[in-house]
Amino acid sequence: MISGSVAYDTIMVFDGHFKDHILASQVHMLNVSFLTLQLKREFGGCAANIAYSLKRLGGDPLVLAAVGRDGSDYLQRLRALGIDTARVRAFDDQYTAQAFITTDLSDNQITAFHPGAMGSADQVSAQSEGEHIAWGIVAPNGKAAMMRHAREFAAQGIAFIFDPGQGLPMFDGEELRGLITLATALTVNDYEAKLLSDRTGWSEEDIAARLKALVITRGAEGSTLYEGGSRQMISAASISRAVDPTGCGDAYRSGLLYGLSQGWSWLDSARLGSVLGAAKIEHAGAQNHPVDRAELSARFAAAYGRTPW
After folding, report:
1. Could you say which of 1, 4, 146, 237 would form a disulfide bridge with 136 (CB–CB 3.0 to 4.6 Å)?
2. Which of 108, 130, 137 is CA-nearest to residue 22?
3. Domain tally for the chain?
C-alpha cells in the first residue's frame, strides 16, 4: 500500500546556476526571475512515482491518494500500467496536486507546490479489505492523510516505511516522534535527516534505535543504512549522464519496497533502490525511465559485485 501524492509536475530547466543569481546579501528582498527554455508537463507525485517503478519491477502496488477534476487522464494512465487505483478518490471541486519545478545545471531545484485534492486524501482508508499487504509506505501527502494512514498501518500490524520527504515541515517535533514510534522504518534524504533531528531532538543514532531500519539518501555520495545497531554506507550506482533528478528518491523507494516485499535483506533492498535511482536520473521526468530487470541486474552487479536475482 502506497500512501502519497498523485500530482502533475511542470518541469522547467534553467540553463545556468541558481547560485550565480541569488545574492546572499540580498535575500531579504529576493526578486529573481529565471529564463527556462525547456518546459514539460509530466506525471508525478510520490505515490504514483513509487508505484510506477514498483509495478515495472514486478511488484503489485495499491495507491492510496486523491485527485481532482483534472485527474481522469492520470487515472487512465495508472490503470493502463496495471496499477490498482481502487483507493484513489476523485474530488470534482478541486484540482489535482501540482508541482512547478525549476532545475538548474547543478541539479538544484526550486519548487512551488499546490496541494489541491491531496488535502482531502485523509478521506481514503488504509484499512486492508482482504488484500495481503506485504509492506506499506507513508510518503508525502496531505498531513491528515499521513497521520491517518500511519495509525491505520500500525493498528493492523502492517510493516511500513515513514517517508516524510517534502511534507516534513508540516509536523512539529511531538508529531514526528509519534510517527517514528509507529513506523517500522524511515527514509529521508540528508537534508531531511538534519531537519528531522532538529525537530525531534534525536540524533540519527537515536532515531535508528527506535526503528528496524533508517535509510538516508545522499545523492551522488550514495546512501546510509542504519540497521541492527550498525551503520553501513551504500555506494551510488554509476550513471552515464545526469539528465533530471526529479523522482530519483521515489525510484529508490520503489527498489527498497520491492526487495523488502520479496524477503530480501535491507542492504540488498537499498542497493536495488540505488540502482533504480541511477536509472531514473538518466531520463527526464519521474515516470519515463525504463525498468528492465536484465539491465538493472547488470547495473547491480557492476556496483556491488553480484546480481540481485
Report:
1. 1
2. 108
3. 1
Specify the residue for cell string 538544484: 108
Q: Structural domain of residue 13, as residue ranges?
A: 2-19+35-304
Who has greater pLDDT, 21 or 71? 71
Cell of 2: 502506497
User: What is the maximum alpha-carbon separation in the chain?
Assistant: 58
Does residue 25 fall inside a structural domain? Answer: no
Read off the pLDDT of each residue in 105-126 and give the average, rounded to a whole number.
92
Q: How confident is the model at residue 257 (pLDDT cuts 50, 70, 90)?
A: very high
Alpha helices, DSSP H only, in the chain? 46-57, 72-80, 143-156, 173-182, 190-200, 204-209, 248-261, 266-281, 293-304
Domain assignment present for 76: yes
Alpha-carbon distances, residue 153 vs 146, 147, 160 (angstroms): 11, 10, 7
pLDDT tens sequence across 173-183: 999 999 999 99
Interhelix angle 248-261/266-281, rounded to 10 degrees, is: 150
126 bridge partner residues = none
CA distance 53 to 118: 21
| Domain CATH code at residue 83 | 3.40.1190.20
Task: Tell me the chain's radius of gyration from C-alpha atoms.
Answer: 19
The cell for 30 is 529576493
| Residue 106 phi, psi dihedral angles, 5° rounding | -100, 15
For the chain, what percent of residues have pLDDT higher than 70?
100
Q: How many residues does the chain have?
A: 309
Instruction: Tell me if the pTM is above 0.85.
Output: yes
* Structure-block grid coordinates of residue 309: 536475482
CA proximity to 46, closest of 113, 135, 127: 113
Mean pLDDT, the chain, integer: 95
Q: Which letter does DSSP use for residue 286 in this model? A: S
**Res. 150: pLDDT tops 90:** yes
| Three-class SS state of 89 | strand
